[in-house]
DNA sequence: AACCATCCCAACCGCAAATCC
DNA sequence: GGGATTTGCGGTTGGGATGGT
């Protein structure tokens, strides 16, 4: 049984011979593929167009990366799979040079088993209850890294993806708030974080975690605070980002198709700090950045560096786009008022 | 050496979405 | 607008490779 594109032709199936590969490569590199259904005829191949397309995409494209997956790639696959599930094509977009088929095969033949060996359900990435005790023991002794936080710190009951946002607000349920913030001098205020939707978030939200840091990364700016090290930085990128998926750093929430990864308030434990690399933007987009960085001492005096306007009474205005893993883009605006060097109020 | 089981991965299949006409 | 065709995706399969007995 052939496909629509080739039902009237006798087509070869099965593995591709080097000669066939050569014909296909030669044809596509000189003519481009155009309509796939016409490729086999033009290229002199007795294959169906679908088979040609698959062969090119999965094997012959010059930009493909061959060889085994690196640990970093494996980590990305697991992280993204936890959020997107078996959306191999989406996952593969985070791995330059890898195909959905390759990622899928790697998952099925390798990662799945690793997760199961760690007592994790490969579908949900949650700890399988019967494994919890043994897994904890293993972890303590062998320092095995478990990728899955048992629950997301954010959850959301969302049904708004269209223009009717005024009728039913999108409500984010934040995790139980820590009672105080140990740095003691900085606080954040967050209201209606996304301008395209109505969200309600507690207007004041404080964290106790001494390693608290939070990051907003977007098209025009990155603002990050690491309260533990009394460091703050603002990066302003001058190049627009059209498609630069943000990989969430292990936590976030997921509604139907939206991932909120690094935009938000995100407590994390000290051991995770190494993993909390800023979301990767494409290299070429990192090229043009103005970075303003300030160090604060214990009394919040700026020790050095810093944005020229960062002083008590100053304010910042920043617009940025969030680029989510499903290619959704969302524009946000942010306003920061430095009422004092220890009171930074952020409005979204 | 022969047989068998398992693994791995390239390729296929069916379906749905997108595009064409 | 709607049927036909093409494209893209995820699940599945088949057969070669590998390892064990």
Write a brief caption for the model.
The chain is 24% helix and 21% strand. By secondary structure, the chain is α+β, with helices and mostly antiparallel strands.
Give a written overview of the molecule.
The chain has helices at residues 18-31, 39-43, 49-60, 71-84, 88-92, 100-117, 132-142, 283-286, and strands at 155-157, 170-173, 188-189, 199-200, 204-205, 213-217, 221-226, 231-237, 253-254, 259-260, 289-296, 302-305, 315-323, 329-340, 343-347. It has 348 residues and is an alpha+beta fold. The termini are far apart. The protein binds a DNA duplex (21 and 21 nucleotides) through residues 1, 3-5, 13-16, 35-37, 49-51, 53-55, 57-59, 86-89, 100-102, 104-106, 108-110.
Topology, element by element:
Blueprint: H1 18-31, H2 39-43, H3 49-60, H4 71-84, H5 88-92, H6 100-117, H7 132-142, E1 155-157, E2 170-173, E3 188-189, E4 199-200, E5 204-205, E6 213-217, E7 221-226, E8 231-237, E9 253-254, E10 259-260, H8 283-286, E11 289-296, E12 302-305, E13 315-323, E14 329-340, E15 343-347
Parallel strand pairs: 2-4
Antiparallel strand pairs: 1-2, 3-5, 6-7, 7-8, 8-11, 9-10, 11-12, 13-14, 14-15
The protein binds a DNA duplex (21 and 21 nucleotides) through residues 1, 3-5, 13-16, 35-37, 49-51, 53-55, 57-59, 86-89, 100-102, 104-106, 108-110.
